[in-house]
């Protein structure tokens, strides 16, 4: 192992800021894409529910008209 | 082969296949990224010239390679969409483009942060950096074009053509470090001779490469599922699928 202590590992031979910043930002960018995808799925669920409600309302109205 | 492939032109069949494969790719992503990143950060030796700053390579190189790999995949899907008019291929364009754009952003960000301590500058308008930035603009252009038309299929066709034209940028990015003078170092692993990197650094880098490959595939699959559902919203199978959770 190239590091003697945990503190050494954090400091990264003086490059700690650069190394950790790059890993943090990369994680944020990838997480944003995943999050956006999850939100899109939720909104699709909502839309699908609205569509079904609408279809049911229309079917009900049609039945009452034909009676 | 065609008999095997044809059922997947039906959106629901593609959805079921993606749904079956996704957990495996997600698990592979998690395992290989954790192993690769921990190995690269904590166990790989420091570089004799760059010290510990080189550890950014474990994100930078995989992100850069698959920012181009995703583009190639998107262009192939664009070609399939244009030639065979397969709808799922069209829908994979908006599934791939944001993932590729994110990988490009990661490659540019990590490159800038690595460049500051090693080159003394965050950014320089040289061939490698500029052509990678153009890749980001191509991704944005493909997404914008896809959604720019009232008729979705016209938009998909336009985006497919742009993605095919943009393929010209891939060899430019790859060979930019040979064709022009640049601060960016040359290829270390994507060349035919022996890789010019120590084995103790190469192994975690290869694991990270695998991790980013699986990550790219997983994210694209998640987005493709959404795209398929978006277009099949009125159909019973899609409604049932969306009610599940």
Automatic annotation (TrEMBL), chain A:
Residues 57-67 have a biased composition (Basic residues). Its main location: membrane. One of its GO terms (biological process) is cytochrome c biosynthetic process. It is a single-pass membrane protein. It is found in: Cell inner membrane. Pfam families: CcmD. GO terms for cellular component: plasma membrane. Coiled coil: none annotated. It comes from the Bacteria. The chain crosses the membrane at residues 15-39. Residues 48-67 are annotated as: Disordered. Keywords: Cell inner membrane, Cell membrane, Cytochrome c-type biogenesis, Membrane, Transmembrane, Transmembrane helix, Transport. Required for the export of heme to the periplasm for the biogenesis of c-type cytochromes. PANTHER family: HEME EXPORTER PROTEIN D. Belongs to the CcmD/CycX/HelD family. This is Heme exporter protein D.
TrEMBL record, chain B:
It comes from the Bacteria. Pfam families: Cytochrom_C_asm. One of its GO terms (biological process) is cytochrome complex assembly. Keywords: Cell inner membrane, Cell membrane, Cytochrome c-type biogenesis, Membrane, Transmembrane, Transmembrane helix, Transport. The chain crosses the membrane at residues 21-44, 56-84, 91-113, 133-149, 158-177, 197-221. GO terms for molecular function: heme binding; heme transmembrane transporter activity. Residues 22-184 form the Cytochrome c assembly protein domain. It is a multi-pass membrane protein. It is found in: Cell inner membrane; Membrane. GO terms for cellular component: plasma membrane. Belongs to the CcmC/CycZ/HelC family. NCBIfam families: ccmC. Required for the export of heme to the periplasm for the biogenesis of c-type cytochromes. This is Heme exporter protein C. The gene is ccmC.
């Amino acid at each position: 192992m190239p590091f003697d202590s945990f503190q050494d590992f954090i400091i990264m031979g003086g490059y700690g800021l650069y190394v950790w910043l790059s890993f943090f930002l990369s994680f944020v960018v990838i997480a944003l894409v995943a999050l956006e995808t999850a939100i899109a799925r939720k909104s699709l669920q909502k839309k699908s529910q609205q569509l079904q409600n609408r279809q049911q309302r229309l079917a009900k109205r049609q039945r009452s008209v034909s009676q | 082969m065609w008999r095997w492939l044809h059922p997947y032109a039906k959106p629901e069949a593609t959805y079921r296949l993606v749904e079956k494969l996704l957990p495996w790719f997600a698990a592979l992503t998690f395992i290989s990224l954790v192993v690769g990143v921990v190995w690269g950060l904590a166990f790989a030796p420091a570089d004799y010239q760059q010290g510990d700053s080189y550890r950014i390579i474990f994100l930078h190189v995989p992100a850069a390679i698959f920012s181009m790999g995703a583009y190639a995949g998107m262009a192939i899907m664009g070609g399939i969409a244009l030639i065979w008019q397969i709808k799922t291929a069209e829908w994979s364009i908006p599934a791939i483009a944001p993932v590729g754009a994110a990988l490009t952003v990661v490659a540019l960000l990590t490159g800038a942060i690595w460049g500051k301590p090693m080159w003394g500058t965050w950014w320089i308008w040289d061939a490698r950096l500029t052509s990678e930035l153009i890749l980001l603009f191509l991704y944005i252009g493909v997404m914008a074009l896809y959604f720019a038309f009232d008729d979705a299929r016209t938009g998909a066709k336009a985006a497919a053509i742009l993605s095919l034209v943009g393929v010209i940028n891939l060899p430019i990015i790859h060979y930019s470090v040979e064709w022009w003078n640049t601060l960016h170092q040359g290829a270390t692993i994507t060349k035919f001779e022996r890789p010019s990197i120590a084995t103790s650094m190469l192994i975690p880098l290869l694991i990270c490469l695998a991790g980013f490959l699986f990550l790219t595939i997983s994210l694209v699959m998640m987005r493709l599922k959404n795209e398929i559902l978006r277009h099949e919203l009125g159909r019973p199978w899609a409604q049932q699928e969306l009610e599940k959770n």
